[in-house]
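Subject: mismatched residue count in predicted assembly?

I count 426 residues in my input, but I want to confirm that the predicted structure covers every chain. Input:
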Amino acid sequence: MTNDPPPPTRPPRDGSDGPTREDLQALAAGELDAATARALGTRIEADEDLAARFAEARAIEEALRAQPPLPLPSGFARRVLARLPARGRTLSWPALARLAAGVVLALGVWIATVGATPTLAHAEPPPVVCNALEPAIDLLSSPTFDIESLTIPDEATDDTPALLVLALAGALLLALGLVAARRTSYRIAPRSPSHDEPEVTP
Amino acid sequence: MRSRAGARAHDVHWGSDAHRVPFAPLAVGFAGMDDALRDRRDVLAARAGDRDAFARLVDHYARRVHDLARRMLRNDHEAEDVAQQAFWNAWRALERFDAERPFRNWLLRITSNLCRNRLAARRRSRELPPRGGEEPLPEAVAPSEAAPADLSPERVRRAIEALPERYRLPVILHYVQNLPLQAIAEITEAPVATVKTWLHRGRAALGDLLRSPETDGPGPGTTR
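Triage response: the counts match. Full output below for your records.
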């Protein structure tokens, strides 16, 4: 062991330049490879000062391992269990989003494939509807009424834009549902040096 | 290297059945398998809504979880909060947990993340000084080469709690909770080599702390 200032780079672990305190602690922790440990052990045997420092490192190691667990507050488990919510039968919001997306998509597909826009053309209106329609019938039969003003342009009857919107909405909802499901699956944020990252909790 | 007696002492501390079986190294392995099988069974049952199964998991891991939270946060009330929250989060996320993985590691990962969040919140609220790189060692005093280390359990506990956060977690998991490097790597989501580095530096810092005359009181937010 010399009193020279430590070199800028880490000294070799065999202790040829004098083992550092970290080397001794690594030896006490059993972390050195066999050859390095043997070399260091030889030096320790020949040097009383080193032997004393190694004994201290070993004592620290043993004191760390002998650290008893801290007492658990009484009633802790009971308090934990009392706080637990009921399990498993409620739908989370990602599940709801997926469900909504499915419904919208199914509706879009049904409209697109069956093309069955609901019509009441051949249905018998109930009496209450007939009564409600009377003012409209009066209006239609008035001489000043211009039927042309009620003509619906042909393109407005085309279902394509509505179907497109439905399909897009469905796809958007489905994508949102999938993203939400991914984000809420329990993943621990990667460790950063500052450990400041927020935790993703369910 | 860990002595057989040391391994037994820790297993008894943390509620493992290892002490019932002779030949500690083998016993630890068998106990680990038993624990894993038991945990898997309880996790699957709890996932199906069996609160008794989850109660068994709580009983088995409450001490570990609370101990980790208490040592990380240095505050009894916050430790209780975080430990309860960890179990609550685990209960809520059980369906997404891979039951083939060790439940203990997953639970301790949840706990350590909650602790980090709590510590980060403290820093943001200026209860702790903002940190550029690492937390400075509290009231650090240059260790004396000749000073014998004070190794009383209480002093060692305070020294562990005074470690920078980055080293405190692996040191607690390795030395206090007796976990292997692979488990610590899984909990911290870091490579094993990184865990070794943290332990190496943490041990060096601990040595300095234990050799220094203790001039500081309890850590921030500590209640005793």
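Chain A has a mean pLDDT of 70. Marking this ticket as 'not a bug'.
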